[in-house]
Write a structure and sequence with these properties.
Elements (H helix, E strand, L loop, with lengths): L3 E6 L2 E6 L23 E7 L5 H4 E2 L4 H6 L15 E2 L5 E2 L7 H5 L3 E8 L7 H10 L11 H10 L13 E4 L14 E3 L12 H12 L9 H14 L16 H14 L6 E6 L14 H20 L6 E6 L20 E7 L29 E2 H11 L6 H4 L13
C-alpha cells in the first residue's frame, strides 16, 4: 500500500497511484494552489525488451548489413518497403515515417552504436544499470533522474517550492530511474488521480484527509488532497490535443497524450517517464512489415503526435528514448534476433542538434563486431544522458548523477 492508495465509500472514489512516501513533504501552499510555472522538461521513453537498432536506424550503406540479415533486413531507400533515407548511409525503418518530418525540421537526433559498457545480456540487469546509471554495479539505491531531482533541491536558486507533479511516471509503479528520496508520482493515468465526487461528498473526503484518520493514508493525506485539487484545476478530463495531433489508442499513445496534458497545464512538470514493452524479437521479427514494424508504427505515431500537440513548447522540451541493449547483428534461425550489445536512441526537441546521426559507426565486418556477433559500442549511454541533463536541465554535477563515469567526450545532441 505504500505505492497505491484505494479509498472507496459510496459516491466517493479516490485513486492515487505510486505515491512516494516522502511525497510533497517540502511543498508549501499558502492559499489555494501554487502558481503556474513553465520550465525545461525532459520526457524519457524506455523501450523495454532490447529494441533492434539495426532495423530501426538502418545502415543501408553497409554491405555487411544485408549479408547478415538476408530475410529481415530493411531494403535500401527507393525499393519497395525500403528505408527512409536520412543521410545517404543511414535510414529509418519505413514504419517510422511519422518521425521523418522531425528529421527534416532538424528536431530528430539519432545516436547509433550507443549503450551500456556492461556485457550482460540479462534484460533485468541491463535495465537496472541504465536506470540507476551505474553499469555493473548492483545495489545502487536510487535512479539517476531521482539523483538529479535531489541535487536540484539543494541549489541556491530554487526559490519556488517543488510542485507535486515535478516528476511523473505514467506507470503502475515508480520506475527504477525515479526511485530515491526526491518526491515523485507514478500513476496509471491522470483520470485515476482525480476525485469522483461533488458537493458534500468532496467535503467529507477532504475532512477525512485533513484529519489523517484513515490508516491507508500514511500521513500524506493533506498533501495528496492538495495535489488532487491542483490536477482538477487543470481539468484533464476535458483536454483536447492541439494542431490536429492524433494519438494512437494504445496504452503508450495515451500515456504520451497525458504527458502533453501535464506539460501544457503548467503544473511544474520537469521529468516525465513512460515505457513500452514488446521489443524482445527472438522469433518472427519481420522486416518492413511484421512484429517489429507494428511496434515501431505505434511508437513513432505516438511520439509524432506528442511533438505536434506541444507545438512551440518543444523549444523547452527534450524527448529521449532508450533501450537496455541492442540485438545480435546476424538474424537467427527463427527469423528473429537474439540479445546483442550496442543499440540506438533518439533525442528529439526544438533545440537539439538534429538532422544528423550522432555517434561513431563501428562497422559490421566480422572483425568489427563485439564478441564476433554484435554491433560494437562506441558511445556510452551515460555520455548522452549526462549531456542532456547538463545542457537541457542545467545539472551542475553530472558526476553525482553517474558516479564512476569519467567520460569527457561530447556527443553534441543538445
Amino acid at each position: 500500500m505504500q505505492r497505491r492508495v484505494f479509498l472507496k465509500s459510496g459516491a466517493l472514489a479516490l485513486v492515487t497511484m505510486g505515491l512516494s512516501p516522502s511525497f510533497l513533504k517540502r511543498t508549501v501552499y499558502a492559499q489555494g494552489l501554487p502558481p503556474a510555472r513553465k520550465g525545461k522538461v525532459l520526457i524519457c521513453l524506455f523501450q523495454r525488451g532490447a529494441a533492434d537498432a539495426l532495423n530501426i536506424v538502418v545502415p543501408h550503406g553497409e554491405p555487411e548489413y544485408y549479408a547478415l540479415r538476408p530475410n529481415i533486413a530493411i531494403a535500401r531507400p527507393g525499393a519497395s518497403g525500403g528505408a527512409i533515407d536520412l543521410d545517404g548511409f543511414f535510414g529509418l525503418h519505413p514504419a517510422m515515417a511519422p518521425l521523418s518530418p522531425l528529421w527534416e525540421r532538424g528536431m530528430l537526433a539519432p545516436v547509433h552504436a550507443v549503450g551500456s559498457p556492461s556485457s550482460t545480456r540479462s534484460h533485468f540487469d541491463a535495465q537496472d544499470y541504465m536506470e540507476s546509471g551505474t553499469p555493473d554495479v548492483k545495489g545502487t539505491p536510487d535512479g539517476w533522474l531521482n539523483r538529479f531531482l535531489a541535487a536540484k533541491d539543494t541549489c541556491a536558486e530554487c526559490e519556488l517550492p517543488a510542485s507535486p507533479f515535478r516528476a511523473v511516471a505514467l506507470a503502475q509503479q515508480t520506475p527504477r530511474i525515479l526511485e530515491g528520496p526526491a518526491p515523485t508520482i507514478a500513476m496509471s493515468s491522470l483520470d485515476d488521480f482525480t476525485i469522483r465526487a461533488t458537493g458534500s461528498d468532496v467535503q467529507r473526503l477532504e475532512a477525512l484527509y485533513r484529519t489523517g484518520s484513515a490508516d491507508l493514508i500514511h500521513g500524506a493525506g493533506t498533501e495528496t488532497f492538495d495535489a488532487v485539487k491542483m490536477l482538477k484545476a487543470a481539468d484533464p478530463q476535458r483536454y483536447a490535443p492541439e494542431h490536429d495531433a492524433n494519438y494512437p489508442k494504445s496504452p503508450f499513445g495515451q500515456s504520451l497524450r497525458q504527458i502533453a496534458q501535464l506539460v501544457k497545464a503548467d503544473v511544474g512538470l520537469e521529468i516525465a517517464f513512460a515505457d513500452v514493452g514488446g521489443w524482445d524479437t527472438h522469433v518472427n521479427q519481420g522486416g518492413a512489415t511484421g512484429q517489429l514494424a507494428n511496434r515501431l508504427s505505434d511508437f513513432s505515431q505516438a511520439i509524432a503526435a506528442l511533438v505536434t500537440d506541444l507545438g512551440d513548447r518543444m523549444d523547452d522540451v527534450v524527448i529521449m528514448t532508450m533501450s537496455e541493449f541492442g540485438r545480435m547483428a546476424k538474424q537467427n534461425g527463427n527469423g528473429g534476433t537474439d540479445h546483442g550489445h550496442a543499440g540506438a536512441l533518439f533525442v528529439i526537441g526544438g533545440r537539439v542538434q538534429g538532422h544528423r546521426v550522432h555517434g561513431k559507426w563501428p562497422g559490421l565486418a566480422p572483425e568489427q563486431l563485439n564478441e564476433g556477433r554484435d554491433l560494437a559500442l562506441t558511445t556510452d549511454f551515460r555520455a548522452v544522458f549526462a549531456e542532456v541533463a547538463r545542457t537541457h536541465l542545467g545539472a551542475v554535477r553530472t558526476d553525482a548523477l553517474f558516479p564512476g563515469f569519467t567520460g569527457t567526450a561530447t556527443v553534441g545532441v543538445v
